[in-house]
Design brief:
By secondary structure, the protein is α+β, with helices and mostly antiparallel strands. The protein has five helices and five strands; from the N terminus they run H-H-H-H-E-E-E-E-H-E.
Length: about 150
């Protein structure tokens, strides 16, 4: 995933607005986490986030990520390992999918061509319609072995 295509000031303004709507403040720690996730090329664990900014306290990072998730700024992803990973909410970045290693739990983002995305959406719509299910959005995760574990 490339960094957000919206200007950083707009990203932070949007994050602050979402948190205000949830009766939360956009604190310095929360802003730092959003900036780190904006600069990341893949979803990150809390440990990875703390490694990128040692000034962040671990207990605060957990609380702040929970607030950011509840406010719709951050999305939490759970893989096959014990560590959740975090990324900015997709509407703040771009639509993408994930490659997840079933051994180490590593996660990488990938995108597909607009033509393939359209084909996927049509296939998912057919499945939804057949099941009487109303789809809000889709997420595609490919699970397998990363180059290190292969």
């Amino acid at each position: 995933m490339a960094p957000t295509t919206i200007p950083r000031t707009d990203l932070h303004t949007t994050a602050a607005q979402r948190l205000r709507a949830d009766s939360q403040r956009y604190t310095t720690g929360r802003r730092a986490l959003v900036t780190l996730l904006d600069e990341a090329t893949r979803p990150l664990t809390i440990s990875e986030l703390l490694g990128l900014d040692p000034s962040l306290a671990q207990s605060s990072a957990y609380r702040n990520l929970a607030v950011l998730e509840r406010g719709g700024v951050v999305h939490r992803l759970v893989t096959t390992d014990e560590f959740a990973r975090f990324e900015l909410a997709e509407d703040l970045t771009e639509h993408h999918h994930h490659l997840i290693c079933s051994v180490c739990g590593s996660m990488e983002d990938f995108t597909v061509s607009p033509q393939l995305e359209t084909s996927l959406e049509k296939a998912f719509e057919k499945v939804s319609t057949t099941a009487g299910f109303q789809t809000e959005y889709h997420r595609l995760d490919l699970v397998g072995l990363c180059p290190t574990c292969h």
